[in-house]
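not sure who needs this but someone in the group chat was asking about Phosphoglucosamine mutase from Sinomicrobium weinanense so here u go. i didnt clean anything up, its just raw.
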Amino acid sequence: MTLIKSISGIRGTIGGVPGDNLTPIDAVKFAAAYGTWLKEENRGKDQLKVVIGRDARISGEMIQGLVIQTLTGLGIDVVKLDLSTTPTVEVAVPLEHADGGIILTASHNPKQWNALKLLNHKGEFLSAADGARILELAEAENFEFAEVDDLGKVTLNEAYIDMHIDEVLKLPLVNREGIKAAKFHVVVDGVNSTGGIAIPRLLERLGVEVTELYCDPTGHFPHNPEPLKEHLTDISELVVKKKADFGIVVDPDVDRLAFISEDGEMFGEEYTLVACADYVLSKTPGNTVSNMSSTRALRDITLKHGGEYKASAVGEVNVVVLMKETDAVIGGEGNGGIIYPELHYGRDALVGVALFLSLLAEKKIPVSELRAGYPAYFMSKKKIELTPQIDVDAILSAMKEKYKDEDISTIDGVKIDFPENWVHLRKSNTEPIIRVYTEAKSQSEADTLADKIIREIENIVSIKS
């Protein structure tokens, strides 16, 4: 059981001992720290407002109640979206003219996890400095709650998924007529969370025929909720059985997006951003950004359209900062996260679906053929489980020294760029693991490189122990 406190929020497993897990006491403490930070940031403002939404995981209602009552206890008003998506909360914050937002979701983590993901008044994830201040406040536990006449009020608004869809459909590059005319048939795997609400609604409004798979938002995930090939056999089989045009897979909070081609094969979550960027750049040339664990294919597509590509450290907030600095027209992360600034600076599967459908309606080719037209890179995404005794910094330093003659970046962990492939090693912000990502011109080469690096790390650990 684990509790991870980071600048992006607090994430942990439900139950157990306070301080070691995400217990009610921890939820209250960190909600109080966030509310106290908001009051610091808005001194002199009479009344603060925060938007709260959650995915469908089993612990969501409990954590939501604790967080909402803590904020109202601080004298802060709350707009409760209840079942929602991460990008929906991000869209709702500025529409509500709110001072911040909290999304209660552990994203792709299994059902025993939950988290408080924290937003600023723009509906964007907090800066490192703001996140660090909230951690300080949580540690100090120096909170001042409101007197009885000054308690905050709660307003329920369950319309925001539809309002979010409205905002997506208003985007000039979403070709509503072309999509409707194409008469697409799509299978949707909502992993029994809020994607099962949002994605079918969006598709129906675009005139797309929908076959639903695991779209009942019970929070009982029918498979590992991370949208990787090994977890998606059911939808792959159903796409072929139903002779659908393709399949759509989202994670529990709907900020990650993956596609299944009509032949049941993975389109590749790395290529979600590549395809959406190809469409956007063809209409609005410009720059792109992804993180340094993402495929080189985005760089290739950007250069083809005459733009400039930049890589940031891993993490949505880092991608967004670099997108703003470079005026990127689209960006995101290779885990299927699409960030389209025309709507908002946050990963958004709904925007990704609408842009992808617009591209397919224009190309008039099968999804497998679309994928075959992009640069062919293959990734391996592996991990090493951590124990408290493992010194991650020492491991990364040793790997940096071992490969000092190669092209190395230490912006985020250690990335080693070889002429024909690369490896990126970094400690996860959300799980007690070292991520080992590699990319090469074939899957076997990527897997072989990853296994080689893992053996070298295990050797370093055994020597040190």
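also The longest helix spans residues 443-464. if thats useful
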